[in-house]
């Protein structure tokens, strides 16, 4: 068999209803099955895609532990479909406010997790920041995880590069401002896109990283999300993008 010279990644722009864990797991499996048919090695889901972007005080039943059945189910998906899965949820913190957790599973094992470090604005009332930046070995490649507002902190990407990461997967759920009834989707999409282009493009070039982006998309019960999938190469160029704010998948290949 010819040795693989690339990793294929699915960057999923998913609609993640708040608190609808079983519904979100079902959608995840559909995306994973589609990815398997495309020969995907890693599938990356948005921030909090399992629980939705919840206010943990309004939906405490959707605040999960790492031992929750939903997390076990995603780990099983990684074995059943022979795919590395990156997914997110709101994690119970016995010492205080919950964490925003993005975890990685492969071959039926939980490889580990990253707790979002950059907690600010409204999130500071709801969530506690993490303080660790682990990296993970997947198919011989070192991968780091970042979450949404981490895009504002170049030190996070510098730290991953210092640890030998060649890929960082940025999972996001930047809620759009304004009333849902009068939502300007295009302006919201363009706002998030310009943030990614300016900041992630710069970090990719400065740190010689590939950076992939997966963003929540569409309307939930009380909030909208802009979508947008992107891949930046180590020269800082955006080599692939989804081009719209709709749900869907951006399939990309990274040489190894």
Automatic annotation (TrEMBL):
Highest taxon of source: Bacteria
Keyword tags: Hydrolase
Keyword Hydrolase among record annotations: yes
Residue ranges of domain CN hydrolase in the record: 7-256
One Pfam family linked to the record: CN_hydrolase
GO molecular function: hydrolase activity, acting on carbon-nitrogen (but not peptide) bonds, in linear amides
InterPro entries in the cross-refs: Aliph_Amidase/BUP, C-N_Hydrolase, C-N_Hydrolase_sf
Record carries keyword Transport: no
Protein name (Swiss-Prot/TrEMBL): Carbon-nitrogen hydrolase family protein
Lineage: Bacteria, Bacillati, Bacillota, Bacilli, Bacillales
């Amino acid at each position: 068999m010819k040795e693989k010279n690339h990793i294929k990644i699915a960057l999923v722009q998913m609609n993640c209803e708040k608190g609808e864990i079983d519904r979100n797991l079902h959608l995840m499996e559909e995306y994973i099955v589609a990815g398997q048919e495309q020969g995907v090695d890693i599938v990356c889901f948005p921030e909090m895609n399992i629980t939705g972007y919840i206010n943990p005080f309004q939906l405490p039943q959707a605040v999960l532990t790492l031992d929750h059945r939903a997390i076990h189910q995603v780990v099983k998906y990684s074995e059943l479909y022979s795919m590395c899965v990156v997914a997110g949820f709101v994690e119970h913190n016995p010492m205080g406010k919950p964490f925003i957790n993005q975890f990685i599973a492969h071959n039926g094992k939980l490889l580990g997790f990253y707790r979002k470090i950059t907690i600010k604005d409204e999130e500071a009332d709801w969530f506690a920041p993490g303080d660790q930046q682990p990296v993970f070995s997947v198919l011989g490649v070192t991968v780091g995880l970042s979450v949404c507002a981490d895009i504002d902190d170049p030190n996070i990407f510098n730290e991953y590069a210092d640890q030998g990461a060649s890929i960082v997967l940025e999972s996001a759920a930047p809620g759009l401002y304004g009333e849902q009834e009068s939502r300007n989707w295009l302006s919201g999409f363009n706002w998030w896109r310009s943030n990614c282009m300016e900041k992630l493009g710069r970090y990719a070039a400065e740190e010689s990283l590939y950076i992939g982006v997966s963003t929540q998309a569409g309307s939930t019960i009380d909030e909208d999300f802009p979508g947008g999938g992107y891949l930046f190469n180590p020269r800082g160029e955006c080599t692939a993008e989804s081009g719209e704010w709709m749900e869907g998948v951006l399939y990309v290949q990274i040489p190894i």
